[in-house]
Write a structure and sequence with these properties.
homodimer; alpha+beta; Jelly Rolls; four-stranded antiparallel beta sheet
């Protein structure tokens, strides 16, 4: 649990007692490669903190899986849209590698906000980070051609290039895998 | 200020002393029709609460203004992406009508979080709402054809149809004004 506590301490001050209490709120879980953290139509009942592994978020659109985000070590995994109101999810979250995480249920998270002195502050900072990331994604959809979206992917997820298949990267960039190959070729030719 | 206090009380409990303190954090401002709350390249230095009026958020892309959100009475106005890190904005926020609002500066907002007991909780709930709205927008970009995006606009902003020009609605839906006319015609023919 060391990583999670460190992650939390990076944003808020917590006492040793609070750190112990936080331990009791989380459970260890493992998702095997290709298994699902959340499937479309189900309610997202937990938030996960990835200690090892990789997941993708995608939308199923007319049989096509459109990846819109990835989560790796040190990040939280959740479809807030479903989780916050405990409504069925329009997105799917799948493990792309064997993934270990610490999960917290909806009820335990409310306890976290209640019992940890700066818990609400932590929740605010996380929600703000997620929201800003999401705003950047929206800008990118509106304005960026595939080349720039691919560049942005490399910049934001440089360490993921080796871990993701061309299929998943192409899906995120919003092009067919063949088009991604062409983009990559053009980019390597640039001075 | 009644509306703002009511809005806050809808989400958190505040004492009378806190309500008075909150008054001191906000300033009244008026933006004339077509004037700017925030322009691209500038830092967003405040969050506004609209008491009367209407604004649009847009991205300037190769000379084309792409509207991606609107704000009206009872909503907060801010480009969090710029505000939270006090960095220059890639978006513009413009008043489409004479707009009255109550604004809070970055520093005063930190005081709000510090001095109001449930202030952080309020901040968390607002950031979560904004994030979820933004997630819904992303889904819509990925999956919805213009007809559905127009339907979604009508559903979410039914009271804005009369207040927005066809140009602004078309920009939000992601089509040319002529295409929007065709969509509307097709829709009125449906049983």
């Amino acid at each position: 649990m060391l990583n999670l506590i460190q992650y939390i301490q990076h944003l808020i001050a917590i006492t040793e007692e609070e750190a112990s209490l936080i331990h009791t709120f989380f459970e260890e879980r493992t998702y095997q490669k290709n298994s699902f953290f959340l499937t479309e139509g189900r309610v997202c009942k937990q938030v996960g903190f990835v200690t090892q592994g990789l997941l993708r978020y995608y939308i199923n659109h007319e049989g096509e899986e459109k990846a819109y985000a990835f989560a790796q070590e040190g990040s939280f995994v959740c479809n807030y849209e479903s989780f916050l109101v405990q409504a069925s999810s329009s997105k799917t979250i799948q493990a792309l590698e064997d993934t270990h995480m610490l999960t917290i249920s909806y009820d335990s998270l409310q306890q976290f906000y209640k019992k940890i002195k700066a818990g609400e502050r932590f929740g605010r900072l996380i929600a703000e980070q997620l929201y800003v990331q999401s705003l950047k994604d929206i800008t990118s959809f509106y304005t960026d051609p595939p080349e720039i979206r691919y560049n942005r992917f490399i910049k934001n997820h440089s360490n993921l290039q080796q871990r993701l298949s061309q299929y998943h990267i192409a899906s995120y960039v919003g092009v067919k895998p063949q088009s991604l190959s062409r983009i990559r070729k053009r980019m390597t030719k640039l001075p």
